[in-house]
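User: Sequence recovery, please. Input:
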């Protein structure tokens, strides 16, 4: 199979990046681009108020209709970061209609965040039993396996998710994050190959370049992080992703102190619906544990 010239360039960039020290990270942290947290959407709050009236007033609603209303309210609570209220509604919705695949999917995500991995697997398997082609259940089950440290399962799910749409840079990144836990050298080579074969001008591929070392951390923060912001995309959303993946990069570099800063910043954006926000808390906790372990061993 012919190897493209571009692949060689990327591999050279990767190899040069491996020689970098933590100095660039220190410089980047002194020049952080911090955004205003995303405000709660007033439309969601108004819709919740209307749903509250309907649920309280119409006591004779058919069970399936009540389930849909509770599910909708739960998803709005989730979008506002009110996860406990969201879980209550999702569970009640399933009492009225046990075939609501999306409610299981949300609950699986919440269980992953709580590190209740066994329950999360049950939820995602339930989703796939009801809707084998559900667009997110494979991804979410893979994320659950990743945090459960069942890397073989994570790689399997992330690979299936990637193969369904290989031009999606986020699918490439999550597959890489799992593969690097199994074989770091092979994972980085695979990442470079996928960048050459499937990469395009979509902003998310800049994150792949960051992971490869084709863009250094400071350069990324100075320009690439806010490049090509879409009309329907907020700065907080973009920086939530940026902070999270910079945190993951610093973890891979062994700089858990810098990683902790980035995960805190990701959480500070209040972009509650983003995967990167949801798991920044878990990553922060694990970075702190790594720091404590290093301090004890040191």
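Assistant: Recovered sequence (298 residues):
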């Amino acid at each position: 199979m012919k190897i493209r010239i571009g692949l060689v360039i990327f591999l050279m960039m990767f190899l040069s990046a491996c020689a970098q020290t933590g100095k660039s990270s220190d410089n980047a942290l002194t020049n952080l681009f911090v955004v205003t947290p995303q405000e709660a959407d007033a439309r969601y709050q108004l819709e919740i108020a209307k749903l509250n009236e309907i649920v309280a007033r119409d006591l004779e609603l058919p069970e399936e209709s009540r389930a849909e209303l509770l599910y909708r309210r739960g998803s709005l609570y989730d979008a506002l970061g009110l996860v406990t209220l969201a879980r209550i509604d999702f569970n009640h919705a399933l009492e009225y209609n046990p075939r609501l695949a999306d409610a299981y999917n949300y609950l699986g995500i919440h269980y992953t965040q709580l590190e209740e991995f066994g329950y999360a697997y049950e939820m995602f398997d339930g989703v796939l039993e009801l809707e084998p082609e559900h667009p997110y259940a494979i991804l979410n089950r893979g994320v659950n396996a990743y945090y459960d440290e069942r890397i073989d399962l994570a790689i399997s799910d992330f690979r299936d998710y990637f193969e369904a749409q290989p031009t999606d840079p986020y699918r490439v990144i999550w597959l890489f994050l799992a593969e690097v836990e199994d074989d770091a050298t092979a994972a980085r080579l695979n990442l470079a190959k996928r960048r050459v074969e499937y990469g395009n001008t979509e902003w998310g591929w800049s994150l792949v370049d960051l992971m490869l070392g084709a863009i250094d951390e400071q350069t990324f923060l100075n320009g690439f992080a806010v490049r090509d912001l879409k009309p329907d995309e907020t700065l907080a959303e973009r920086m939530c992703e940026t902070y999270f993946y910079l945190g993951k990069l610093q973890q891979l570099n062994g700089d858990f102190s810098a990683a902790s800063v980035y995960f805190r910043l990701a959480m500070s954006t209040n972009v509650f619906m983003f995967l990167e926000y949801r798991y920044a808390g878990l990553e922060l906790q694990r970075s702190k544990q790594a720091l404590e372990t290093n301090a004890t061993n040191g």
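Residues 275-297 form the longest helix (23 residues).
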